[in-house]
């Protein structure tokens, strides 16, 4: 029976290496090396690099403060703002490298792995639902215009965020985040 | 003296392979094979895979109908709409695979190549300028609200587009494009 703690070590290393080097740039040996484990032990815990990538994506999701979006101690728009501020600070704190693992896998590997494509679609779907929930509350509270469509707007906000990261990475600048917050909160969610 | 036509063949192959497999998934041998050229001939035309990727990115840009954005026979917002419709049709016509080479390189390789990062930033910069030019005209014509900031809005529109592609690829669906057009033209550019 493989030790659970070794799986945790491998998963933490996998997340780090996938996030830094991308799916295609990551080898199983690098994941094992980063966890201080022999390469062969990888397959005691994961059936394939793809399956490990899906597990890494789930772990990544668990670290993105989605809990902020359902924190009823805050007004709904403030929850959305704080969630994206948290994501922004993470990317800025890594000098605008690495980006978002969801967006990375979506450009890097969805064409080549149905398993990962499905996990990326599920991850995005959960994110849209949480934002749509907060927007539905905001509309009920009169904090956004009455004709705002929470579902469509949630997709748009998240997608705009993912594209904002592209500019932030390419220009190594926080300015695209400022523009995102300005346009989303002053124009889209008015 | 290397034949220019062979460089063209290699460049066309490089664009195809980079777009299909990503930077890290592409080998020089695959580019040469796809062009029917010996691997060694690649270096008669390109100093490195990176330099070839930058040339492929420029060629890709030349095919994206940026000319629509300065077509003064059309109202400015219509130019923007037709440009993004052209991009949408290209992606939908490939069953939502491949995405946008600018966005792909921005997630796949900007952290690892300063040459490509700079080319991606330049490509985005030219795109923002063309959209900002059309938005400036639209504001002058009263087709958008008077307080719209053409520069910030241009960045936002292009970035939202790049993120929209992420959802379209992950879900293999045109619905994200519909949402993009709805939110951009009915809400952001009102």
From TrEMBL, chains A, B:
Pfam families: TetR_C_13, TetR_N. Coiled coil: none annotated. The keyword RNA-binding does not apply. Signal peptide: none annotated. One of its GO terms (molecular function) is DNA binding. Keywords: DNA-binding, Transcription, Transcription regulation. Residues 27-46 bind DNA. InterPro entries: Homeodomain-like_sf, HTH_TetR, Tet_transcr_reg_TetR-rel_C_sf, TetR_C. Gene3D superfamilies: Tetracycline Repressor, domain 2. Residues 4-64 form the HTH tetR-type domain. It comes from the Bacteria. PANTHER family: HTH-TYPE TRANSCRIPTIONAL REPRESSOR NEMR (PTHR47506:SF6), TRANSCRIPTIONAL REGULATORY PROTEIN (PTHR47506). This is TetR/AcrR family transcriptional regulator, transcriptional repressor for nem operon.
């Amino acid at each position: 029976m493989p030790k659970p703690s070794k799986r945790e070590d491998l998963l933490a290393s996998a997340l780090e290496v996938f996030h830094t080097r991308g799916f295609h740039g990551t080898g199983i040996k690098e994941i094992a090396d980063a966890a201080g484990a022999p390469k062969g032990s990888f397959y005691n815990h994961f059936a394939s690099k793809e399956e490990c990538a899906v597990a890494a994506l789930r772990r990544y999701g668990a670290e993105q403060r989605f809990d902020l979006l359902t924190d009823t101690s805050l007004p709904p728009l403030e929850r959305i703002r704080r969630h994206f501020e948290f994501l922004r600070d993470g990317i800025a704190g890594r000098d605008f490298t690495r980006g978002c693992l969801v967006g990375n896998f979506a450009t890097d590997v969805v064409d080549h792995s149905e398993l990962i494509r499905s996990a990326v679609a599920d991850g995005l779907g959960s994110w849209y639902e949480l934002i749509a929930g907060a927007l539905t509350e905001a509309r009920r509270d009169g904090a956004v215009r009455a004709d705002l469509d929470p579902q469509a707007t949630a997709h748009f906000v998240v997608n705009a965020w993912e594209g904002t990261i592209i500019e932030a990475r390419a220009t190594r600048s926080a300015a695209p985040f400022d523009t995102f917050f300005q346009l989303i909160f002053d124009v889209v969610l008015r």
